[in-house]
Automatic annotation (TrEMBL):
Record-stated family: Belongs to the transglycosylase Slt family.
Origin species: Dysgonomonas alginatilytica
Lineage per the UniProt record: Bacteria, Pseudomonadati, Bacteroidota, Bacteroidia, Bacteroidales
A single GO molecular function term of this UniProt record: peptidoglycan lytic transglycosylase activity
SUPFAM superfamilies per the UniProt record, alphabetical: Lysozyme-like
InterPro entries cross-referenced by the UniProt entry: Lysozyme-like_dom_sf (IPR023346), Transglyc_AS (IPR000189), Transglycosylase_SLT_dom_1 (IPR008258)
Protein known as: Transglycosylase-like protein with SLT domain
Cellular component per GO, a single term: membrane
Coiled-coil positions: none
Pfam families associated with the record: SLT (PF01464)
GO biological process, one term: peptidoglycan metabolic process
Domain named Transglycosylase SLT: residues: 100-203
Length: 324
């Protein structure tokens, strides 16, 4: 009799354990599908510290705490904008990440491109800064880009990323810390160096600067936090919602193209698609002369990449972005 009682108790325990494990698994899944930030009345919790490019920053000092608080709440509740940034990142990050790595730039600097251009390679500011990294014409040419009326490589994702790496490495050699490098990207090295001297400060985060620069570094910290835990901040995303990476065929061109619309048609795409993926082409033609011989690489999108298919598995850059 005792034997049967023991067996019965054991069976109940096993079943109870199974229920607990199942409920825990379901609870975790439910948590991911039901974000913690549910209403406009809930303020986002501020962590004790954050990190960027391997550098930790404690947020216990009033000004650092409040600067981060402003940006994390702004991005958390800019729903349509922040959602669009995550979707675009799935296409852009796989292109720029390897370039950053090859040039010794911390991976976190991809978030600089997020706040600079909203990951739009065609972006242009009121000050005429252009492209993914919002480079000014003089900065672009300084770091090896061609900037003319026909060809403006600030709009090339790959080449502008390489130019940005050159700037960032130059700034790091000057300052020795990545927070100052990031802030100098917005204000310029001359301004940051000058203010460090005038204000007798050692850390650029202690400087009294114009509002845009003062907020700049904390905007990167905030968007990084949201990208690393989107569901926590109210963003529930499936893989199919992300913008899928586009596959390309590279065409090397060393002779003039008098009509880019005809060139596009000959390559099986529209003129709009040609311009969309080769925004560095700034005119309707591409001129190459004997005095200035050049070879340009034009990207032709794969026809299948241009269409979304129901049930298609979109390649996901970061599994933390999706709920599955």
């Amino acid at each position: 009799m005792k034997k049967y009682i023991i067996l019965a108790i054991s069976a109940v325990c096993v079943c109870s354990l199974g229920v607990i494990l199942l409920s825990t698994s379901e609870s975790t899944l439910e948590e991911r599908k039901n974000p913690k930030v549910l209403a406009m009345t809930i303020s986002v919790e501020i962590p004790d510290e954050v990190s960027f490019a391997g550098e930790k920053l404690k947020l216990d000092r009033y000004d650092l705490h409040e600067r981060f608080d402003r940006e994390i709440n702004s991005f958390a509740y800019l729903h349509s904008t922040t959602l669009l940034l995550i979707k675009r990142a799935n296409r852009i990050f796989p292109i720029i990440d390897p370039i950053l790595k090859e040039n010794g730039i911390p991976e976190d600097f991809k978030y600089l491109a997020v706040i600079e251009s909203s990951l739009d390679p065609r972006a242009v500011s009121s000050a005429k800064a252009s492209g993914l990294w919002q480079l000014m014409p003089a900065t672009g040419t300084q770091f090896g880009l061609e900037v003319t009326s026909e060809v403006d490589e600030r709009y090339s994702i790959e080449k502008s990323t390489l130019a940005a790496c050159k700037y960032l490495n130059s700034a790091y050699r000057k300052y020795g810390n990545w927070s100052s490098v990031a802030m100098s990207y917005n204000a310029g090295m001359g301004r940051i160096s000058g203010e460090l001297d005038k204000q007798q400060a050692e850390d650029s985060l202690d400087l009294w600067l114009v509002e845009e620069t003062s907020r700049y570094y904390f905007r990167m910290l905030a968007i990084k936090c949201i990208f690393e835990n989107p569901y926590k901040y109210g963003y529930v995303i499936s893989a199919e919602h992300l913008y899928k990476p586009i596959k390309f065929k590279s065409v090397d061109v060393s002779e003039s193209i008098p009509d880019l619309a005809s060139f596009a048609k000959d390559n099986g795409i529209t003129y709009a698609q040609l311009k969309d993926f080769n925004s560095w082409l700034r005119d309707r033609k591409l001129t190459i002369t004997a005095k200035k011989p050049s070879t340009y690489t034009i990207l032709i999108p794969d026809s299948e990449s241009l269409y979304y298919k129901r049930g298609e598995k979109v390649k996901v850059y970061d599994k933390k972005w999706i709920t599955e």
